[in-house]
Structures are given as C-alpha cells and as structure tokens.
C-alpha cells in the first residue's frame, strides 16, 4: 500500500503518567509539526493514566482537532478505560479497549444496500477521488470522526491501486447498509489476497503494501482483500459499523 505521512502510531512505554508524558508529548508535537493529522496513541503497556496523562490526551486532542486532524487511543486496559470514562474522555475521541478486535458478521446475501454509488478514478485525480469519497460518506449515518477515518483508509487503498495497477481501471463503490457502510476499491492488477486474520508482509516487495493494510485495519472495523471473482485484479473492501452494531464493539 502507498505510504501515508498523515497517519502515525505512537506507543506509550509504561504507564501514561508524569514520568512518561514529556517524551510522549514531544513525539506527538513533532509529528504534528511535520503534517501528521491522524495519530493513534497505543496504550498496550499502560495500566494507569494519571492527571498528567489525562491532560496530555486532552491537550493533544484539541491541538489535532484545531488542525483538522484526530487523536485516538487504542489497546486501553480496563482500569485505564474506567478512568477515561469518569473523565468523559470517551465522549470526545475514539477509544478502543485492549483485546482482539471483533470482526463484523458477514452480511446476509439477501440484504441489499440502501444506497450505492460507483465511480471511476483517474490516475491524476486522487485528491478529487478522496474528496468525492468524503462527500459521499458525509451523507451517510457516520460521525465526522468516522468519515475522517474512512476517507483516510480509502486513500490508502486508492494510492496502492493507482500506483501498482493499470491507469484508468480503478473503481470505487460506496454502499450504505442498515448496520454498516462499505467502500470497495477495485483495480485491474495481477491480484492479491490476504485473510482478515492474516498478518500482512513485513519484508520483501510487498512490505509497503503491508504497512498500508495495517493502517486501514486501524482506521476501519474490517478490511477484506481478495482477487476479483472474474477477470484480473484486486478488491479491497472497507467496513465501518454504524448504529447499535458500532456501539457493541470492544
């Protein structure tokens, strides 16, 4: 997948407290100054967040939003999650608890989209394509943060499709279902597959593709990558749950 300078994963080494906050703040501020507009703060090694940590989260969130970006938390422990809930942080930003990410159930074959739009993407018009996706998603039952993340994820898929396949053969389909929004990016390349529970490549010619897949998985609820059922090419399917289905996620 095409690399994106707009997205970064920042790990917290140990608890997010007065001793670790300065280093985390410096790293986030450095990323923001370089133009990063989507940051995931990984709290996998943090079992505790003190008042300094809370202050960091809220300050950096305000900074990101003032620049049109977004900060979110991932791999949050139960104890830290309870503290964040008491501080009403959950109302302000996306927070994902620790543990395996539950994949959405497959759609019943009889369920038809409520709305569906497909358009072709030209090689020299990626920015226009991303803007069109954002406009279409903005008309669907998604929050502004969800629209932001889905647009970034689609941009990753588009960048790879245009960079590595035939020009003029990339299609984007945006579909709205009762419990989810799906975006498909299809191309006419040699074809590539990766199961949802399979780790993307970290080395070799597909390493960059693997980085993009990891980013898309962070930004969405499901990423399916498969060869076309007919003809040559790959279909990348991105899913974001909505309504009650979204509220039961870990």
Automatic annotation (TrEMBL):
Source organism superkingdom: Bacteria
The keyword Phosphoprotein is annotated on this UniProt entry: no
InterPro entries found in the cross-reference section: Anti-sigma-factor_SerPK (IPR050267), Anti-sigma_ant (IPR003658), HATPase_C_sf (IPR036890), HATPase_dom (IPR003594), STAS_dom (IPR002645), STAS_dom_sf (IPR036513)
Domain STAS stretches: 1-106
Name of the protein described by the UniProt record: Anti-sigma factor antagonist
Pfam families found in the cross-reference section: HATPase_c_2, STAS
Keywords: Kinase, Serine/threonine-protein kinase, Transferase
Family membership noted in the UniProt record: Belongs to the anti-sigma-factor antagonist family.
């Amino acid at each position: 997948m095409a690399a994106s300078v707009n997205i970064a994963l920042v790990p917290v080494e140990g608890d997010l407290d007065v001793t670790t906050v300065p280093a985390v703040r410096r790293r986030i501020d450095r990323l923001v100054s370089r133009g990063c507009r989507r940051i995931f703060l990984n709290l996998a090694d943090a079992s505790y967040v003190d008042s300094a940590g809370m202050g960091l989260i809220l300050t950096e969130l305000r900074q990101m939003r003032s620049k049109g970006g977004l900060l979110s938390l991932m791999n949050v422990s139960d104890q830290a999650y309870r503290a964040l809930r008491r501080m009403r942080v959950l109302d302000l930003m996306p927070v994902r608890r620790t543990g395996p990410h539950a994949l959405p159930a497959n759609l019943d074959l009889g369920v038809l989209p409520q709305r569906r739009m497909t358009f072709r993407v030209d090689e020299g018009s990626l920015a226009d394509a991303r803007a069109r996706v954002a406009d279409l998603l903005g008309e669907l039952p998604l929050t502004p943060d969800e629209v932001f993340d889905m647009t970034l994820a689609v941009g990753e898929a588009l960048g790879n499709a245009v960079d590595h396949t035939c020009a003029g053969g990339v299609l984007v389909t945006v579909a709205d279902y009762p419990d989810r929004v799906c975006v498909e990016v299809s191309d006419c390349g040699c074809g590539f597959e990766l199961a949802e529970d399979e780790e993307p490549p970290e080395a070799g010619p597909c390493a960059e593709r693997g980085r993009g897949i990891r980013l898309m998985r962070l930004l969405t609820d499901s990423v399916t990558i498969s060869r076309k059922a007919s003809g040559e090419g790959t279909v990348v399917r991105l899913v974001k749950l909505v309504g009650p289905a979204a509220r039961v996620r870990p």
